[in-house]
From TrEMBL, chains A, B:
The keyword rRNA-binding does not apply. Its EC number is 2.5.1.18. Pfam families: GST_C, GST_N. It comes from Lotus japonicus (Lotus corniculatus var. japonicus). This is glutathione transferase. It comes from the Eukaryota. Keywords: Transferase. It catalyses: RX + glutathione = an S-substituted glutathione + a halide anion + H(+). InterPro entries: Glutathione-S-Trfase_C-like (IPR010987), Glutathione-S-Trfase_C_sf (IPR036282), Glutathione_S-Trfase (IPR040079), Glutathione_S-Trfase_N (IPR004045), GST_C (IPR004046), GST_C_Tau (IPR045074), Omega/Tau-like (IPR045073), Thioredoxin-like_sf (IPR036249). PROSITE patterns: GST_CTER, GST_NTER. GO terms for molecular function: glutathione transferase activity. One of its GO terms (biological process) is glutathione metabolic process. Residues 6-85 form the GST N-terminal domain.
Length: 224, 224
């Protein structure tokens, strides 16, 4: 819990997977914070002041000291509020957690996006193949209930993109890629993770997000 | 220093900026290691075994436990061998170090490459402009002798790309971007950093690297 006199602000947009990561971590730690909602496509003065480099959410401001980049923020949260550790304590396990979180950012996020919103057919097929390979790596990596073991941790939080956004995007595009048949362990994991009370409370409402991206998808495919 | 009975291997290629980061960190910590040289364009069995996901160097194997991704390796080294800390101890300063290291990977490395090896003129000009902006952010961020303070640390090591490779590439392409006039603090930093005994010993020999990339550059511009 944030000590009295502490000021914790999260600059975010509802629906951003990167913001959602920070929300899950703060909720897990029981840190009270103010959600300073930003408008998509507009850069508020506070955002420009707090993240002049990338001008993007999320930004966590702790007593007016700003931090950007969701995985950097997660490490900060874990080092600042010690209850319910997100990262393991052993250096090798910590390295593995950092490796797989980076893997999700490098190999899943952008690829998912392109596997849905790429107009050119051959290119899109290639992205779907890449996404399938990436999900297979995660399927193989999952040894316990969660990536973090019996409790969820750093990789699980990073992988909220896999649990929540990949199914949403594939439904929009009519893809049948991330299914219980093809990735049984990862699929079970996604259900356990999404139904965890801390995660459930932190997720954005699905319907408006679905409608928003469905609209973008339809205008894209209509213009083909 | 590695405890007796410890086995530290670094799978690398001489000339890789990412491998060089790990070499600097190991040397700073006084860790003895075996350099297992890989051949460019070939994937050894050991590399495929140790980094099946990305199939890339560097890989650090500590008692046969492999870790990939240079910044992940640096954190592991810092957590495993405690002398000469690479990261600051205070959480906010640690977050800043992680932020700027990621910034170098996201905004400098690829941009430098493209500002030299992009054939299309307009696109190349755009990359040079982006690189210039990125260097300006680093110039503004530099408050002490090193990014790490009086001693070099995590960001400095990540920024070996800026100190050693940016000047090399700009010389190949006849660019005059990273100069003492345009970026005085960053330029002084680069000289201090490159002349630090630990760094000096860890750098690849410049001449063969220059010849290699000059050759690639000339064949590219000849084919325009």
């Amino acid at each position: 819990m944030a000590a009295s006199g502490e000021n914790v602000q999260l600059l975010g947009i509802v629906g951003s997977p990167f913001v959602c990561r920070v929300q899950i971590a703060l909720k897990l730690k029981g840190v009270e914070y103010e959600f300073v909602e930003q408008t998509l496509g507009q850069k508020s003065e506070l955002l420009l002041k707090y993240n002049p480099v990338h001008k993007k959410v999320p930004v966590l401001a702790h007593n007016e000291k700003p931090i950007a980049e969701s995985l950097v923020i997660l490490e900060y949260i874990d080092e600042t509020w010690k209850s319910n550790p997100i990262l393991p304590s052993e250096p090798y396990q910590r390295a593995m957690a950092r490796f797989w979180s980076k893997f999700i950012d490098d190999k899943v996020v952008d690829t998912t996006w392109k596997s849905v919103f790429t107009v050119e057919e051959e290119e899109r097929e290639k992205r779907i193949e890449e996404l399938s390979e990436a999900l297979q790596f995660l399927e193989n990596e999952l040894k316990d209930k969660f990536f973090g073991g019996e409790e969820f941790g750093f990789v699980d939080i990073a992988a909220v993109f896999v649990a929540f956004y990949v199914p949403l995007f594939q439904e929009i595009a009519g893809l049948h890629l991330f299914t219980a048949e093809k990735f049984p362990k990862l699929y079970d994991w996604s259900q356990d993770f999404l139904n965890h009370p801390v995660v459930k409370e932190s997720l954005p409402p699905r319907d408006p997000l679905f409608a928003f991206f469905k609209g973008r998808y339809e205008s894209l495919t209509a213009s083909k």
